[in-house]
Amino acid sequence: MTVNDVKERKMGICVSGGLDSKTIAKRLKEAGADVLCFTADLGQPDEKDISDVVAKMAPCGVETVIVDCKAEMAEACFRAIMAHATYDGGYWNSTGIGRAVTVKKLVEEMKSRNIAILSHGATGRGNDQMRFERYTNIFAPEMEIYAPWRDPELLKEFPGRTQMCDYLAKFGIEAFPGGKKRYSTDGNLAGLSHEAEDLESMETAMTIVEPTMCVWPMQAPDEVEEIEIEFEKGRAVSINGKKMEPVELMVEANTIGGRNGVGLSHALENRIVGTKSRGVYEAPGMELLGKALQYIYQTILDKRATAMMEYLSDFIGTQIYDGRYFDLSTEAAFAAVEEYASHATGTVKVGLYKGNILFYSLTGVEASIYFEEDASMEASKGLNPVSSQGFAEIQSVEARAMSKAGQIRAAQIARAPHT
Questions:
Q1: Where are the domains of the chain?
Q2: Contact 95/102 with Cβ under 8 angstroms?
Q3: Domain spanning 190-363 has what CATH number?
Q4: Strands, E, within 196-320: which ranges?
Q5: 276 to each of 96, 327, 364, how far by Cα in Å?
Q6: If 0-12 CB within 10 Å is exposed, 13-18 middle and 19+ buried, where does residue 111 land?
């Protein structure tokens, strides 16, 4: 589909209020399309007032509908935390989580308004094009999709940001109200990503970023802040004794973690399309809650359950990144995680200090398989050390067999005659 195919067609454009959103909306309106814009309220930390998006888009002559997605976004955060679903080096992929929620909710709203075509401003070189289109095809397979930055005509017309700014200027539309940043941001309750522009150079330090949710660890307070988090079946239910609903709890966790420099990370990730992308990420609440829950998992999961949980975490993290949040395999993996999490109830106390999360105490974990008597080096009623004799002998049978068979290189070297 090209820009020439949209005349008099009813289109829904997913917008954020940025340069791409304005350019696409104005250009499609000028092409004769019946344009209605949609934006998701995901609790964006970089938007003081989500209605500002409406104001930013208004000069383009379009109406913008705000769809409240905060409750769904908080639920998606809790599921990701329960699964410890991080990606490529262990960062919380807030954008991938947010896209699943955004497209599902916006498509529902578009369908209720008889929108025939969904348009998104994702680049043809990135991940979001796959996420937007895969999720649209899941929830509205009958809906057509127009991707402006894969349209040869628009790519020729707008080869870069300069041309987009010039185009908007012809209509008296300001491209960057409030000034242009050295990088682009994308945020929601789960976190904030900083990418592109100056960050594309590997010679640029990650510290050019001015954190929105966090402070850099060196700027965090000089005192440890103690935090107590209560979990029920893998879900955080209270912080410092105060019970909260998911949205409020995520906001509180972000605030606490952020002021202590928790959750800032740098990643050079592997994109869906096979290229690499560099980003600086803020996810203070996800990191705080995720780390605290990990302490409970360590006490309730045996060796094999831990290995399975690590596999599920990696699998779900990759599925979320790849735009496969709603796939059957992802749901099955989440179901397995929930089985483990059904035992993850307890209260964790941690200390936050300049980006670090320090373990203080763990109480109320009835499903714990950790027993001090078994681990103690002192005389106790725990595991009888004498009973380990037979186990050690059995383990040694295999070791001797491998050594005699010449399978252990270090043993061969040790037995070799010295010259």
A1: 3-68+95-182, 190-363, 380-415
A2: no
A3: 3.90.1260.10
A4: 225-232, 235-239, 242-243, 264-270, 276-282
A5: 16, 24, 44
A6: middle
CB 45 within 8 A of CB 18: no
Letter for the amino acid at 315? F
Strand partners, 350: 227, 359
Q: Which two tokens stand for residue 329?
A: 């395999």
333 contact partners, CB below 8 Å, separation of at least 6: 83, 312, 315, 316, 319
Going from the C-alpha of 372 to that of each of 365, 376, 378, the distances in angstroms are 14, 6, 10
Q: Is the pLDDT of residue 101 over 70?
A: yes
**CATH architecture of the domain with residue range 3-68+95-182:** 3-Layer(aba) Sandwich (3.40)
Question: Residue 416 — very low, low, confident or very high, per pLDDT cuts 50/70/90?
Answer: low
**What whole-number distance in Å separates Cα of residue 8 and Cα of residue 29?**
9
Element (H, E) at 414: helix 409-415
If DSSP codes are grouped into helix, strand and coil, which group holds residue 212? Answer: coil
Asked if 143 and 136 count as a contact pair (C-beta separation under 8 A), the reply is yes
292-327 pLDDT, tens digit per residue, is: 999 999 999 999 999 999 999 999 999 999 999 999
CA-closest candidate to residue 57, choices 100, 92, 14: 14
Phi, psi values for residue 286, rounded to 5°: -60, -45
User: Tell me, what amino acid is at 136?
Assistant: T
Q: Which of the 8 DSSP states describes residue 344?
A: -
The answer to whether the 3-68+95-182 and 190-363 domains have the same CATH topology is no
User: For residues 349-366, b (16+ Cβ closer than 10 Å) or e, as one string?
Assistant: bbebbbbebeeeebeebe
Question: Tell me, what's the pLDDT at 413?
Answer: 66
Please give the distance of CA 109 from its chain centroid, rounded to a whole number: 24
